[in-house]
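In this supplementary section we document a worked example of the pipeline. Step one takes a protein sequence of length 304 as its only input; no multiple sequence alignment statistics are reported here. Step two produces a three-dimensional model, which step three serialises into structure tokens for compact storage. The input and output of this example are shown verbatim.
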Amino acid sequence: MLKIPSISDAEKLIEEKLGGWFDVVISHIPNFIVAVIIAIIFSILARFLGSMMRNVLRRSLDSQQIADLMASIFKMIILCVGLFVALDFMGLKGTVTSLLAGAGIVGLAIGFAFQDMTENLIAGIAMGIRKPFKTGDVIKTDDVFGNVRSINLRNTLIENFYGQLILVPNKILFRNVLRNYSTLGVRRIEVPVGISYGDDPELAGEVIVKKINEFDFVIKQEETAVYAEGFGDSSVNLLVWFWIRYPGEADFMTVRHKAIVAVKQALSDADISIPFPIRTLDFGIKGGEKLDAMITEKRQHSEQ
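The serialised model returned by step three reads:
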């Protein structure tokens, strides 16, 4: 038969439980006080070290946003370490383990949900540290070519040479091949040109180099050169090389235009022709016979 406890027994049981809990609380008060002190110390330490790191990163990184973000992450790491140490000191190891497991699961879920945003953010932080380019640089990647106007954590604003603003995700700039035309401050211009087979390539090179070096925007004039590139259908193909400051006062399109005009004028003054496409008709089984010679020979045979 089930025995129902009396009211006095229930009161006694509750009193014993409350008394046990009270004793446990009293015994843990010193640990609790020490845990609070540890949390306060880590909070002060996080604020001090976070401020110090922010100042250092702002001096070393071009982007203030990246510097502030990295300093905030560092500060949160110190606070979390302090919290886990305080909980462990209070004997709540199971709570610490649960928090770490929960943080890992939440981080994994956020990573999958915002994968694209996270990738751009990480790429922005990595580029802020590596500094492959800065505001004002001329860069090229994939189909984007222009001046960098602004850089933030997720994307980079580029103004192309058609006057259009293009917002490029940082992961594209981080993954793909990136050309920075402003790092060295110089750029080599290449101008292809062809001369007729009857003209001397060495003479053509001399007159072209002399003409190109007359421009003020040409630097490293000792490296201005003309190279024979190959044999074309109607011409000997030459390649003109010279250096300019880039970016500079003279823009790329103006420099190349003046160079092409100068090359044509130099060749014209030296009586060197830039040939049109020429097609030579060769007759005979083995070739090398011209039409007028064949007609003359046929006419002589007919007269005989």
